[in-house]
Amino acid sequence: MVSVGESKLVVTDLIFVNPGIKVHREYYRGVLLSQELLPAIREMSGDFVVCQQDSAPAHRARDALQLLQCDAPEFIAPDLRPPNSPDLNPLDYKIWGTMQQRMYQRRIRDIAELKERLIDVWDGLQQSVVDEAIDEWRKRLPACVPVK
After folding, report:
1. Which of 16, 25, 96, 107 is nearest to 67 (CA)?
2. Fewer CB atoms near the end CB (10 Å): N or C, the chain?
3. 21-35 pLDDT tens trace
4. Residue of 54, 49, 46, 89 whose CA lies nearest to 73
5. Phi first, then psi: what are they for 46, rounded to 5°?
6. For residue 10, how many C-alpha atoms fall within 13 Å in the half-sphere facing its CB?
7. How many CA atoms are closer than 13 Å to the CA of 5, on its beta-carbon side?
């Protein structure tokens, strides 16, 4: 599994979860959020952070939500977004697909090569691709609200 933070300013490095690690609420809050994502996001954007995540069980855990509400005051809480909407997640509707097209232009032999290629493709991704995805989010939101 890989995680990342993205913004119109800059993106974080890819954050890999080691094979065999289960991303339960404790790991998500204690490691991914507290040690990896939030420090990386703060480093790239300072104190102002708008945070949105999907509705994976670890993301909905009470302690993870409390952490985000305290550490990311502009956190978009789960009750303010659809429970499972790839239509409102720039990573899902644009960025991962763009990366996938670039990733699989050549056969990948093993996990080490997959990780290496992910890093290369992510590092080579133009900020304009991320910016377009975020701009598209602003257009998608009004379209999703009426259809619930």
Report:
1. 25
2. C
3. 999 999 999 999 999
4. 49
5. 75, -145
6. 9
7. 20
25-34, 70-79, 88-97: least confident range: 70-79
The model's pTM is 0.82
SS3 at position 32: helix
Per-residue model confidence (pLDDT) at position 83: 67
Residue 138: band (very low, low, confident or very high) from pLDDT cuts 50, 70, 90: confident
Look up the CATH number of domain 2-147: 3.30.420.10
- Please name the residues in contact with 109: beta carbons below 8 A apart, sequence gap of 6 or more: none
Question: What are the sequence ranges of the domains in the chain?
Answer: 2-147
Q: How far apart are CA 92 and CA 70, in angstroms?
A: 26
